[in-house]
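Marked as duplicate of an earlier ticket. Keeping the data here for the record.
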Amino acid sequence: MGDRSGTDKAALWPTPRFPVSVAAATEEATMIKLWGRSTSSNVMKVIWLLEELRLPYERVDVGGAFGGTSTPEYRAMQPLGLVPALQDGDLSLFESNAILRYLCNAHAPDSPLFPAASHARATVDSWMDFQQTALNRPQGVVFQGLIRTAPEQRDQAAIARAVEEASEIWGILDARLAKQAYVTGAAFSIADIPWGVHAHRWLNMEFARKPFAHLQAWYERLLQRPPYKAHCAGKIA
């Protein structure tokens, strides 16, 4: 887990005011095991939340250049052979947003990151899933085209169309952030996590983009959270 020493970090990222489950906090507890390479945006989501909740965990590199996702053992956890997969005791779980919800429910049920009130929770759920259904595809085209494809092999027309489509989605979020500090209101929640991992890429890839002042200000606020800065806002790869 990341370095959490120092008073400056403690001031920016105070000890949670909600109880984390006793079982998760003890040395004797079964260690949460996260499968997936750290450069995957979906794995970043889970790392970020594990660090926010101060939950002990072990991460195993699989996927991409590491391989390991086609074995029967891994497919038993993740049928499509994608990352991440999570093991917590006798539970195996896949789908990154589901994992975020599970970690809050199981290990920090009183956390304001995933509020219990039905209206607030539904709002968090809807914005988490909106990111996944609306942004993932066009931003994926931009990211794969600009970062994972050699310049001479890029489909510039496809990238340009995807930039325009993704810009519309980021514009929706920018308009929302004009009225509030975080995705679902005045406080950070797990709804910020799916958007945040992609915001770093969007704002730091080299291409002409529309300026979104409120999105940029929100991104700067996220950078004040050590787990985000350490695990999601590094080199784009």
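See parent ticket for discussion. The domain at 118-231 is CATH 1.20.1050.10 (Glutathione S-transferase Yfyf (Class Pi); Chain A, domain 2).
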